[in-house]
Every structure is written in structure tokens, then in C-alpha cells.
Amino acid sequence: MTVLKTSLRNVLAHKGRMALSAVAVLLSVAFVCGTLVFTDTMNATFDKLFASTAADVSVSPKKDDDAQETGRPETVPASLASRLTEVTGVAKVEPHATSRQITAADAKNKSISPESGAPTVGTNWDESQKKSVDITSGHEPHGPGETVLDADTAAKHGLKPGDRVRVMAAPGDFSVTIVGIATYKTTNPGAAVLYFDTPTAQARLLGGDSAYSGYGLTAAPGVSDEQLKRNVTAALGKDGADYAIRTAAESKAENKKDIGSVLDVMKYALLGFAGIAVLVGVFLIVNTFSMLVAQRTREIGLMRAIGSSRSQVLRSVLVEAVLLGVVGSVLGIGGGIALAVGLMELMGSTGMNLDTSELTVKATTPVVGLVLGVVVTVLAAFLPARRAGKISPIAALRDAGTPADGKAGKVRAVVGLVVSAAGGAALLAAANADTPSAGSGLLGLGVLLTLVGLVVVGPLLAGFVVRVLSAVVLRAFGPVGRLAERNALRNPRRTGATASALMIGLALVAALSVVGSSMVASATDQLDKSVGADFIVQSDNGPLTPAQSKAVRRASGIAHFTTITTVKARLALPDGTSVTQGLNASEPTYGDDLRTETVQGTFADAWGKDAMTVPEGFAKDHGIKLGDRLTVTMTGAREARLQVKAITSDDTSINKGGMFIGLDTARQYLPADKMPLDMLILAKATDGHAKDAAASLKAAVADYPQVKVRDQADYKKLIQDQVGQLLNMIYGLLALAIIVAVLGVVNTLALSVVERTREIGLLRAIGLSRRQLRRMIRLESVVIALFGALLGLGLGMAWGTTSQSLLATQGLGVLDIPWPTIITVFLGSAVVGLLSALIPAFRAGRMNVLKAIATD
Known about the structure:
With 856 residues, the protein is α+β, with helices and mostly antiparallel strands. The chain folds into four domains: 1-57 and 248-403, no CATH class; 58-247, no CATH class; 457-532 and 711-856, no CATH class; 542-705, no CATH class. Strand 8 and strand 9 (172-184) form a beta hairpin. Helix content is 57%, strand content 16%.
């Protein structure tokens, strides 16, 4: 109890100094708890949606990952309905005609399809829909020209009953009038949904009245889902092997599996950034307790002199850490819930609607947050607490401070240099690895060792780097600058720990900047080398529908078009193995529009009858030689024997590893209804008419807002924007770690000001003005921040350069260091240091000189 009272008194006595450390714990715990609440809410939302839409038993086509991308969903025969009706235990059979491969536009030709990646769904209206939605305006669709639209999409685009909507599907485009608005009983996570009467859905979405996309079966009273599934399986006999027969629970699990992988990636990515923030927070807490222990040296000596043991002193400091961890964690749990709400609102702005009323906080989430915050805080405080317990009473009463072990400092420096050198060797080995799989482990090891090594060797580097920075930055400020330099060098361990917190965040920023910039530069380089076409036409929502492809080809001023599609096929290889592969099918003009190097044979020969190409790496791995004939079975087609007419070079990033066949070859073996949709179309303008051709192409696809016509400059900008958006999102997440690091600088300065109270009083007494004092503290902060930035940016560029070298074989062939970004971040670090010092400098300037001199 005495230890608890002492610890509580110390916490309250230094509450202002503890507050910033508590904020670091709060932010770290908030990020972890916010991520858990956010992903749990998303899982719960999808669970409710899937549960509300699942039939007791469903019969649908077996999922075929190798099916051709025809734009039409896989179907089951309409004749199956009569057989299912006769199955024992079936109360009702409801046929479904659903497609997730459509797009839609309003009367102004503005797309109403989601931009978040969620699908546009077209489906038939039947009684089963009433389990998940209510028609809150208008009425059900009754004829070929009517549709019901979901309420979220209607609200977002200002649509209402009576408005016209055009639907674009593989069987053809058609227009309908909105006759009703359907509101979900659960949350619609972002899909745009259009309901049609069943005959319309069959004809317009599936292409005829002979099939459905599946059936939903309602069990008779007293018949369980499992029993009904057994009855259906038995009734269908051998034919049942062609269908996926699932209970409601199995359908829910299957749907959850499909979305779960995406949610897991999001969850672990966010937790990874939370882990970085926790790591940075550790430095802040270590610094805080190290300085508090140093400031209470005499107090600790008195405790030891009156009988307190080392273990009691250790426990006293650790209890303070527990109190700090508990307070920070409890506040962090609340902050995490608020963060989850903010993430949900952010997702809402991108089109994924999540209802905050369905916020899901599992019992384990607060427990995880509390345990994480307390454990991290206690572990971070352990070393300072242990050093406090080692102070002898005599030394403490003489205010000798915590024991300085010169030998330990030398050992630390040697260990840090050895670990850093080992990390550098691992990075070098990774950069020279033959394949990314062989070098990825070395890259991870190198990143870890160099990070740990620089953290350990930080105090040694501080002595040298701070002097160099001071010579450049601080000497211009005369005696005040020299005082700031001396203060930064006074405790290299503290300076190193403070800078290390900033170093981690900036190292990641620099590494990602190098990789991102190299991606853009490499893609641009490949476009310049390989693309001979003037225009690239593609849809932002997937493949082009037949109507869209026809519209593109109506453009004038075009010398030729080159269609590119992907045919899925199974290849029997000379080494006895077989693989499923996507074959790029195109016209002979492909070689002009996308220049492809060959190591054997001539690329132009690949477009002849029964001809194909293979990449050199694939050929080497499977013993394929020029002139060999491979047995190729395209999905939905008869077997073909195709001759290898060319072996293409792997030294490219465009269609790297791709195999090519002619469109005529694909059409020779594939039935028309199995031909995949066009993925994109390349266009070459007639000489001197590029501007007119561009205008004609854009006019030709004007009715299709999701179809974009881009020239090479536009495509380069698209790549740059996509990489930039990804990096900006990552930078936003890394900002948390940098904020925690900034708090560390503020805390270090604030505590160092208290530590140097008497010294500050003496400086003021001999003539140092308040303005000079504040400037001294600000300059000290700036040089510490620049020290951390220099280490972080240097380390990050090493990581990024290694990553680029490792990925050079995968198309990342151009190293591009984004110097404007690096320089901006470095200069920004000086601003961060300046801002971090404002409050400590202000408080130091307000000190009473006489009281400061009288301070022990």
C-alpha cells in the first residue's frame, strides 16, 4: 500500500509531464481498438446482410474460377425448377436471375455505379427480396420497362420514381423507368441494386428465358435446412454434381469467405500501422521515465536510506507505469470507438455505407486495448525503473544521478555497429537476389537489423551528426546556437531515443516514396519503350460489353484497332505437368501497338493458325522449345494443338509472363457464347489525324460514362494518380506514428527544461534574455528533429533502393529517388522541431529567475 501511495503521489506530482506519455498510450491503443471495432462492425454488417438474403437451401452453378469472362453469370437450366418443386420438404421454389456484371447511368448519362469497388447488381424481384428490403416509395416492377432502385443509390444520385435509368449488360443495353425505391432492413455496404420483374431479368441479364442464375428453396414446416439439402441432393442424383447445393448457413459462410479476405487484409494493414505507433510510443515512455527517475535521484536516495530495497524502488516506478498505462488505455479504448466511427464515415464518403447504429464492440476489444496499453507501458518503463533501483543511497544523496556506465556505453556502441553492419549486408544480399521470393526474407531481415542497429547506436551517432548539423544550422545564431548544441549533446542517449522515435516514421515514408516513385518511373519507361498505339480504350468497371466494343470501332480517323482479351485455358506441358493459364488473345496488329521482344522466333508468326507464344522463363521451367506443339484446352472449348512460334523475353513489365494467341485461333475453338469480353482496345490514328481521332473516339463512347479514352500522357497520369492515392493513404496512417514522435520531442524538451531549472536561472541571471532562452530551446528541438530526419530518410532510402533492386526482375526496373519529397520532408522536420518546442520554450521563458536559481 505504501508503494502504491508513493507511486500515486509521484504521478500526481508530475501529471503534466505524464500527460504526453499518456497521450502516446492513448493514440496507440485507440488505433488498435478502432481497427478491431471497425472490422468487427463490417463483419457484423455483412453477416446480417448475408443472413437476410440467404434461402433455406440454394441451388446454383458450381463456382468455376476458370470460366471465361463473358459478362454473363453462370446459369442453371430453367427446366430444373419442376424437378425441385417435386422434392420432399420443399414448400416453395423461387428462381433467381442475378448479374453482378452490369453498369448503369442516369438520364444525364452520369454513372450511378459505385466508385468504391462494390458491384452494380441486377436481379429479379420476388417474395424472397422482402426479407432484406422494403419498398418505401412506389411499387414493385411489373413489366420490361420498370425497375426498383435501392434507396442509398437513389439518394446519392438524386433519383426518384419516374426517372429513367439506362442499364448496360453483356446481352445488350436497355432503358427502364424507376417505379419504386427499396430500403434495406440491414445496412447496404455500398452496392447499387436494381430490381426487375423475372422475365426481364432473365432476358436482359442472362440473355434468354432458358436459364436462371440459381434457385432459392423454402423448407416446409418441420423440415430442417440440412434435411432439405439431403432431399435435394438425393432427388437430383448424378445431376446434382453439376450444382452447388447449400444451406442458409453454408451460403452465409461462403459469402463471408469471399469478403473476409478483403476485410482481413484491411484489418492487418491497420494493425500494422498501429504497431508502428506503439513502437514509437515506447521511445517516448522510456524517455519520460528515464528523465523522471534522474530528476528524483535524491528522493530515491532518501527512500533507500530509510530502508527501501531495490525491489521496492523498482516496484514503485513500475506501479507508476501501470497507473499511466491504465489511464492511457481506458482513454484509448474510448478514442478507438470514436476512431471507428470516423473510419465508417470515411468509408461512407467513398460509397461504402456503414450504419453507426450497428457499431459492434466485442467484449475482447477493451480487454485487448487495456492489456496492450499496460504491458507496453510497463515494458518501456522497466529499464529506467531497474536503473533507479541500482542507485546507491550515498550516490543518490549526493545527487549523482543514475549510474553512468561507460563500459555499457561502449558495449552498446559496438553492438549497434555490428547489428547495423549485419543489416546492411542483408540488404545488399537482398538487392542481388535472383528472384523476389529468394530476397524477400533477406529484405525483411535487413530492415529489422538496420532499424534496431541505428536505434542502439543512436547515442554514438548523436555525438557526430548533431555536431555536423549544428555547424550548418546553429552556428549562425552565435552563443545561443552553441548553447543549444551543447544541450542536445549533453545526454546522447536521450537525444538518440527522441530522434529514433521520429526516425521510424520517416524511414517508412522515405522507403515507400522511393518504391512508389520507382513504380511510376518504371511504368512510364515501359510505356515509352513498348506502347506504339495512340489511344487505350477501357472501362473503369471491368471488361467492355459487346455494345461498347462496337461503339469504339465506329470512330473515324483510326488506322487500325487492336482488341485484347484473356482466354482461360489448361495447358498440357512437355514435362508432364499441366497448368491453368490465361492466354492473351489479340489481332496481328498487337505487335505494332505493344512492342514485344522475343528471344527465339518471330512475334508476328504467333498470329497464324494454331500458333502461340510462351515466355522464356516458363519455357525454361517446363522444357518447352521453339516449334513444340502444346495441348491447349480452352474452358468451354474442344482440345487444340498449338505450336510455339515464338518465345518472348521476360525483360519487360507490360504483359510480363504472358502467352499470346490470335483472336482467330480463339474463335476457331471457342463457341460464340463462350468468347470472353474485350479487356481493352488499342487504337492507332491515321497519320496526322491524332487530334481528330481522339475526338471521334470520345464521341463514340459518349453514351458510356465508365468507358475512358486515354492517350499515353493520360495513361501515365492515371498510373501516377493511382500510386499517389495509395501513398497518400499510407502517409495518412503513418502520420499517427509521427504525431507520437512529435509528442516525444515535446515531452523530452519539457522534462529537460525542468531538469535544467537552476541552470536556466543562472543563464538568465548572467544576462540571457527570455527571447534568447526560447530561441535556445527551439534550436535544440530543431537539431534533434533534423537528426531523426537524417537517420530516418537515409535508412528509408536504403530500404526503398533495396526493394527496387529486388523487384527489378518484376518490372520495377527504374530507380527514381523522389528528391523533392525527401527534401520537403527533411525541411518539414525542422518545422516540426520548431513547433514541438513552442510550449516548453514558452514555459522556460516564464520562469522566475530567483526561484529557478534556488531550485535544488
